[in-house]
Amino acid sequence: MPKLWNETIAAHRRGVRDAILETTWALVTERGLTSVTMSEIAEETGIGRATLYKYFPSVEAILIAWHQRHVSGHIEYLVELRDQTHDPAERLEAVLQAYAFISHNREHHGTELAALLHRGEHIDRAQQQLIDLIQGLLSEVAKTGGLRDDVPLNELASYCLHALTTARSLASKAAVHRLVTVTLAGLRPPRGST
User: Fold this and answer.
1) Measuring CA to CA, which residue among 100, 80, 118, 71 is closest to residue 162?
2) Within 10 A of 150 (CB to CB), how many other CB atoms are there?
3) How many CB atoms lie within 10 A of CB 126?
4) Best CA proximity match to 87, nearest among 131, 141, 160, 156
5) What does the alpha-carbon distance between residue 96 and residue 80 come to, in Å, rounded to a whole number?
6) What pTM value is reported for the model?
7) CA–CA distance, 172 with 182 (Å, rounded to integer)
8) Is residue 82 a contact partner of residue 95, using CB atoms and an 8 Å limit?
9) What is the pLDDT along the chain (194 residues), one digit of tens a residue?
10) How many CB atoms sit inside 10 A of residue 153's CB?
11) Strand runs (DSSP E) across the chain, as ranges?
12) Which of 32, 42, 157, 50 is nearest to 96 (CA)?
């Protein structure tokens, strides 16, 4: 097949897949996880049920794919921020602040939906990508002497992620900024250690 034809088919499939993901998410957030059927998704998306089943076997599979895309978008955004400056400390601060605001702005799903979305391999992979990203930034800051050296980098990366995840419970943007400031302060070398 000609390259243009293959690209057209791939673009169409991506468009159908995206429409399925968005429609399903809208229906589930409006009605709840157990109130949405594959037939309703197909009808709302404007495709046949057989076509829907070619893409996904269940509502749960669609939601997991939606969440994977959502989380991947966050990681891509953090990588873009990391690459916008050359100063290691500024890079670290930009990424940590963005992660804190992602946590702060995170939608609160019902417990059933949250249990479905926040488990599984895609979450483990995303968590590892975040740790690797933060650990890489910490390593760069360490080379400048701006990072404490009494705690291993992997523990500092974990500290950052766990501390900043609590931003979801904060009431204001100012509180999120304070949390980032405190988290960054915990990464600096102890006074008198240099």
Assistant:
1) 100
2) 8
3) 17
4) 141
5) 13
6) 0.81
7) 16
8) yes
9) 566 666 788 888 899 999 999 999 999 988 888 889 999 999 999 999 999 999 999 999 999 999 899 889 999 999 999 999 899 999 999 999 999 999 988 766 656 776 777 777 878 888 899 999 999 999 999 999 999 999 999 999 999 999 999 998 999 999 999 999 999 999 999 876 65
10) 18
11) none
12) 157
pLDDT (0 to 100) of residue 29: 87
Supply 87's token pair.
Answer: 């100063």
Which two tokens mark 54?
Answer: 């070619």
The secondary structure of residue 166, as a DSSP letter, is G
d(CA 124, CA 127): 5
Contact 179, 139 (CB under 8 A): no
In three-state form (DSSP H/G/I as H, E/B as E, the rest C), the secondary structure along 27-70 is HHHHHCHHHCCHHHHHHHHCCCHHHHHHHCCCHHHHHHHHHHHH
